[in-house]
Amino acid sequence: MSQIAKRQPPTVDQVVAQQKADAEKQKARIEANVPAAPPKSTAVATPDNRTSVQRYLDEVAPASIVGRMIKFSKDGKSVTPDDGEAVSEETDFIALCDQTLIGRVRFNDEGRPPDRVMGLLYDGFNMPPRDSLGDTDKSKWQLGLDGKPEDPWQHHVYLVLQRGDTDELFTYVTSSPTGRRAIGNLLRHYDRMTRTNPDTFPVVRLKVGGFQHRDERVGWVPTPVFAVVGRVPRESAARPDTSLGADMNEEIGF
After folding, report:
1. Which end of the chain is more exposed for a tag (fewer CB within 10 A), N or C?
2. Residue 169 three-state SS
3. Any idea where the domains of the chain sit in the sequence?
């Protein structure tokens, strides 16, 4: 009886390389289509040459999202939106910091995929000037949850995480000031770490912090926290070392 060879799943390096290639293609497409001078219209006009299949896939599973998505919920938990489950605060994740995407995202009407101007932070991508994206008339902005006009071009940060025990990939997506600050603090830790351990990534756990809002009616505001509990070699397939002898249990967050 002949044996059927099992198809091997892509490695982490292959997935990350594909993400980098997708980001470079996106960056090239943006540079080719966005005019140098600020547009007079309220939106960036870019030709849409995608097939119907590509448009659908971009809407439900944008290429900038690696693996499953994680977001910080309104009730103060890190959750996977595809099933609504909370992520355990005891789960170890390898933070693939050099694959962090930054940029702005504009959500369109129902049936149209979002417009994204994003690139890899550690690949030299620079945030475009806000005025160059159009939609600068605040009187036409929709009201946000706080009752104030909300910028349609939201500042997003995407952090790629690899689960330590299963190697499953996730993308932590945030557009809130506290979420961006939490990732920013983690990246500062990563930059410091690379000076002494350049071939390692930090290992983190998704904790919850918070602060007392100055408005007593708002009360306690939960915020995401990336607690650094260890480090792991970049090229190693071994499980991350979260022993006390690795890194200090340093909380990276608000």
Report:
1. N
2. strand
3. 12-34+48-129+143-253
Closest by Cα among 220, 87, 106 to 161: 87
User: Cα separation of 94 and 239, whole Å?
Assistant: 9
Query: pTM value?
Result: 0.70
Cα 77 from Cα 222, distance rounded (Å):
8
Question: Letter for the amino acid at 40?
Answer: K
Query: What tens digit of pLDDT does each residue of 104-136 get?
Result: 999 888 778 888 899 999 989 998 899 999 999
Q: Are 182 and 254 in contact (CB under 8 A)?
A: yes
Distance CA 56, CA 61 (A): 8
Listed in sequence order, the residues at least 6 apart from 234 whose beta carbon sits closer than 8 Å to its beta carbon are 199, 200, 201
Residue 169, CA distances (Å) to 39, 84, 103, 126 in order: 38, 17, 21, 25
State how far the Cα of 179 lies from the Cα of 173, in Å rounded to an integer.
Answer: 9
Cβ atoms of residues 102 and 207 within 8 Å: no
